[in-house]
Amino acid sequence: MKRRGRAVDGVLLLDKPYAMTSNAALQSARRLLNAQKAGHTGTLDPLASGLLALTFGEATKFSADLLHADKTYVAGIKLGQKTTTGDLEGEFIETRPVQVTRADIEKTLESFRGEIAQIPPMFSALKRDGKTLYDLAREGVSIEREARSVRIEKLDILQFADELLTVEVTCSKGTYIRVLAEDIGEALGCGAHLASLRRTKVGTLSIEDSVTLEALESMSIQERLNVLKPLDALMTTLPAVHLSENDRVRFCHGQRLALGLQSCPRVRVYGPDEQMVGTARVNERGVLEPERLIANKKDIETTND
To answer: Is residue 120 located within the same domain as residue 61?
Structure first.
């Protein structure tokens, strides 16, 4: 059966709106691009807005490349109020007076920078015995969770007024910003919950280069295709290897190439036309070993002739 839609290859940096699931955003973008195949590089909570990198066609082979990348957020933390979920989705369960200064907050934030331990929240997608913690929490069940080590690379105050603390956070994979907000509130002695969250960076990708669904709606199909980033947009931190045409053809057929390169866990590979043809590793003997290959339309047409 022929797939519906067109073969679209590339990466879309979407500014996901508040209160929309990542999957709903993906399907909306897929419809607007009329794309056959689509995926994402990690979800963003419905109550968060901001950068969501979507992949189409051959780019879906590299969706996992951003899963371990650091993320940057702008978070609004409401001091003095706690909720059942740690954010606005839950019910308010406690209110305390807020008697802290900006200097108090800055001193407290120092202890949250670097490697810290976090206990995952009950309201999360983590599973225990095949059931999500979120579902267990909905049933009124609370189970013990082991603390996890995460890294807070950056934690700066952007604004503090009317008991609302706005911070910029750069953190490692697996960091729960609402848990961070709650823990900061406890450290300050007044409690807190996450009032707003916006993701501004994923790895080297920035919200400044993103587009909204509303903007996509107003574009022609060609304009929508033009905003797509190339396949290698997800892998700019990997070293690049450039091949001759003869080696490109051999590489695209899955052959190893003894090129005498420096050993490297992962590289991105290009042909002489500067088009990316896949990713590979370079073993200790300097041999280029194909990892993921990009289907080259020119090679496919040549093979079919």
So the answer is: no
What pTM did the predictor assign? Answer: 0.89
CB 198 within 8 A of CB 49: yes
Domain of residue 208 covers 10-69+204-233
Q: 129 in a domain, yes or no? A: yes
Are 243 and 218 found together in one domain? no
| 3-state secondary structure (DSSP) of residue 158 | strand
Residue-wise pLDDT tens for the chain (305 aa)?
A: 456 789 999 999 999 999 999 999 999 999 999 999 999 888 899 999 999 999 999 999 998 888 889 999 999 999 999 999 999 989 999 999 999 999 999 999 999 999 999 988 766 566 666 667 656 656 566 677 788 999 999 999 999 999 999 999 999 999 999 999 999 999 999 999 999 999 999 999 999 999 999 999 999 999 999 999 999 999 999 999 999 999 999 999 999 999 999 999 999 999 999 999 999 999 999 999 999 999 865 553 333 33
127 and 198 inside one domain: yes
Annotated catalytic residue, options 9, 15, 45, 183: 45
Q: Are residues 107 and 158 in the same domain?
A: yes
Q: Can 156 be counted among the known catalytic residues?
A: no
